[in-house]
Design goal:
By secondary structure, this protein is α+β, with helices and mostly antiparallel strands. It has one domain (12-185). It has helices at 12-30, 98-104, 126-138, 165-172, and strands at 33-34, 43-46, 63-70, 80-88, 94-96, 109-114, 119-123, 147-151, 157-164, 176-180. The strands form 2 sheets. A 6-stranded mixed beta sheet has the order 1-2-3-6-7-10. A 4-stranded antiparallel beta sheet has the order 5-4-9-8.
């Protein structure tokens, strides 16, 4: 699988603006609030808006702490999700990214959002998901899971894999839910 031909090279300010707009969409649709600056998560949503299978024992004060990834692709044209495995610092050290970072930080949900169609992917039980992803990555070959590196501001690099959403859903099951929000109602 390859990226659509008309992709614009990654530009951090545009990527940040897209992420901020995605957070605003999700908050407008589900309620909740952005996380305070310096928090490990992106936003907090009220538990009542989450998929029913989300376990309540991990929730803090009735709220759900979310790591959100907003993607610019149209999910009908491109069937993969970019899962950032690491952020590589300019000195070469790596820190967890994507669902691995959310699991490390004890967050409740890793959410993937495609604003072009209003598609929202919910994933929880993140320790188990990351374990299954690691097992899948260890299997040879994984040709559909193409490695990707994205250069960010200040020499940081996002390193990850393009994972077909069907495989991601199977690995995350039963802790996976897809739904469409009506983006025209939240201003996207």
């Amino acid at each position: 699988m390859t990226a659509p031909a008309a992709r614009i090279p990654h530009r951090f300010p545009q990527s940040k603006a897209r992420g901020d707009a995605g957070e605003a969409d999700i908050i407008a649709w589900y309620g909740g609030e952005p996380a305070p600056p310096g928090s490990a998560h992106d936003l907090t949503l009220p538990f009542r808006c989450t998929p029913l299978a989300l376990p309540t024992p991990t929730m803090r004060g009735g709220d759900v702490r979310v790591e959100l990834k907003t993607d610019s692709y149209d999910p009908r044209d491109y069937p993969c999700a970019f899962l950032e495995r690491h952020t590589q610092r300019p000195d070469g050290t790596k820190i967890p990214g994507g669902p691995w970072r959310a699991a490390r930080d004890g967050l409740d949900v890793f959410m993937y959002y495609y604003p072009t169609r209003g598609l929202v992917l919910w994933m929880w039980d993140l320790d188990a998901l990351c374990g299954r992803l690691e097992l899948a990555l260890a299997r040879v070959p994984r040709p559909a899971w193409r490695r990707v590196g994205v250069l960010n501001v200040g020499g940081y690099r996002a390193l990850g894999r393009l994972v077909p959403r069907t495989e991601l859903a199977a690995l995350a099951a039963p802790h996976y839910h897809e739904e469409y929000i009506r983006v025209e109602e939240v201003g996207t």
